[in-house]
Amino acid sequence: MKTIFLVLFSLLLILFVSCIDAQSCNPSGKLRGKKPPRGQCVNDPDCCQPGKLYDTYTCSPPVTKQTKAIMTINNFEKGGDGGGPSECDNKYHSNETPIVALSTGWYNKGRRCFNYVNIHYKGKSVKAKVVDECDTTMGCDDVHGYQPPCRNNIVDGSKAVWEALGVPKSDWGEADITWSDA
Questions:
Q1: 129, 158 in Cβ contact below 8 A?
Q2: Taking the CB of the first residue and of the last residue of the chain, which one, N or C, has fewer CB atoms within 10 A?
Q3: How far apart (Å, rounded) are the C-alpha atoms in residues 82 and 73?
Q4: How far apart are CA 176 and CA 147, in angstroms?
Q5: Cβ contact 92:136 at 8 Å
Q6: C-beta atoms surrounding 118 within 10 Å
Q7: What's the rounded Cα separation, in Å, for the pair 134 and 3?
Q8: What is the pLDDT of residues 5-48, one digit of tens each?
């Protein structure tokens, strides 16, 4: 009886640890920043720092009905700080439209392309279309506007998203939000 109890206890412990591990998302590597060519960094304060090591990720935290994230602001128009055209359709998009880029894990190899997400901030919400990936695996190059890789918990919103949520312009940059699939 004691042996059966120990075996069952051990199995439950292994299952519990496996579940915890499945919900975590740890860095998958590092990327060393390099100096952007003169005049090539689109948003200077956000540019890669030469020699600095940036975490890279192939995952994001699990999606729930109230997934916690950090919202950043992105310029999806040509010449903006978003780098190249959007991953979903290889086009640029108007910042007047509520659109987002999601961290690599949440982008899910394009499976969320053109789907909508609900974003919540301080009692307000907006529905936005997923058009791009906020790459957590690469960065510090021309394709990524010489910006570091995204963190694994980013919802990168257009100006229209920030306005719809009523975030004062003085607070634009980063905001704690929750989101879910619409």
A1: no
A2: N
A3: 9
A4: 21
A5: no
A6: 15
A7: 51
A8: 444 444 333 333 333 333 479 999 999 998 888 877 766 678 89
